[in-house]
Hints:
By secondary structure, this protein is mainly beta. The protein is built from two helices and 21 strands. A hairpin with a 2-residue loop joins strand 5 (99-106) and strand 6.
Amino acid sequence: MKINGVFTAGIALLLSLAGGVALAPSASAAGPRPNFQLPFPCGQVWNGNSSASSAHQSWEIDFNRGSTADADLGDTVVAAAAGTVVISADQGSANGYGNLVKIDHGGGWSSYYAHLRIRSVSTGAQVSQGQKIGEVGNTSKPGNNISPHLHYEVRTTDTSYPANIQKAVFNGVTFGYPIQDVTSHNCSGSNNPYSPEEVCGSGYGVIDSAALGSAGKVYLLYNTSNGYNCVTTIKSASVGSATATSAYLEVQGKSRITDSGNFAYYAGPVRATATNTCVKWGGKAGASTYDSPFEHCG
């Protein structure tokens, strides 16, 4: 189903895994909650909806971000927290989840990622937070005609299904049930609270990026409403401490715009309009530097 208010598909799924999951009887089995992040790459904004499907038991969430039925098909899904893959299988015929990945995070906590187009990890694999585990899809039980979306759940082992489905918490903040737009801070464990879209502002979306070793990442964003580009460098090391960081944007034929200094979280934003003109962009964090060629000339 599309759940962002633009498109809605209307077929309910039978989404119970109660018969296939061993649940511990102890009422105190679940330990401290892991530091869950949104299950999508850093900086992306997704619309979550827990009320658009009659198949939902309680705090499950369907995620989309596009405005058409197939807009999200093939988008990357990443691990919300580190753990061990305990299920990576097509379970469509059994329960309607289609391609499902379940990650055990320890302490009685696990997360579920359903309807995937492909699964990028195998059962038994150790995954890190932010690691790709699959792609958004529409796999389900044969005969269920659903549009692409990610069905996400968090469960504990301290009670039986469906009471063990917990409210989702991302970056320390409880999801705003039933519907909310959420920005991903799943930035490879950097603990940087800022995303490139937050730095550049409303209307900007990431169109390119480059890693700066383990020190950070530089992003190129574009705003379709006003034709402006934006560059920011987001730190992933020494976060919160002022260290040398820079970001620049150069429109072909014009002077380079640079933001450089000792920053705790990010450099930038630097913005410029470049209609039908190529841009060069880059930045520095730690000892690593990235300089693009002139590109993105549209």
